[in-house]
Amino acid sequence: MISKGFIVDTNEILERIKLDLSPASLKTNLKTLNLLINAFLHEIPYENMDFFHKKISSFNILDIYEKIVVNNRGGICYENNTLFAYFLKELGFDVSLIFCELKNSSYISADFPHLALRVQLNKKSYLVDVGFGQNVREALDIDNKSYKTSYEDIEYYLKKNENTFCLYSKFKKKEEKISYCFDLKEVTLKDYESIFDNLKKEEHAVPLFVSKALKDGRVTLNDSVFTINTKDLKRKWQVSSENRNEVLRDYFNIEV
Questions:
Q1: C-alpha to C-alpha distance for 153 and 97, rounded to whole angstroms
Q2: Is residue 5, in this structure, part of any structural domain at all?
């Protein structure tokens, strides 16, 4: 259960995601929700830098807030989606945390659940996720079997099998893939706050992955390969360890 009570500063988060709006002006509707999702994804990257440096992050909401909002970082799903959930709650949205079964978890560690969000609006449930490496940039109506949406030439849609839902992705005309599956059972911060505490350092080695959405594409640092993929520009080049911090600063606004 996510409690409301000014745990996070909504004004500071709005400033962090570069929305010049007051919390009081934001209505709890689908239009606002999608505006917030897009703004969050454009400014706060998915990044596993702590894991890359074999450091276990704290998933306490106050520590997440300091890391992402105060220190201008990004995070993995447990960080980005937790922050976004508390932010939405403070704005008056009905939001809960849910676990998902990933099909590829190589950028954190194998066998750990992915964290996403369920937002309820007008008696409908929506899947919201601002903590996935390549994102759906809007809330998806969980019960709408026919709805499809596309971002970065990838088509996204949901399928239901009894009480389980799966998010599918399909790149152009290639074979569809399952991104992850989930049910609607609510989880709490306590269910994952210490999830990686017993992870050994040798099990903790992962390739560096930092990715942020652009209005017309994406920038990604995948280990030593940096990629810019937009409508007008597609480039890929090797980044040396000496130049990595420069790339993080110039393209992701992360100072290391």
A1: 28
A2: no
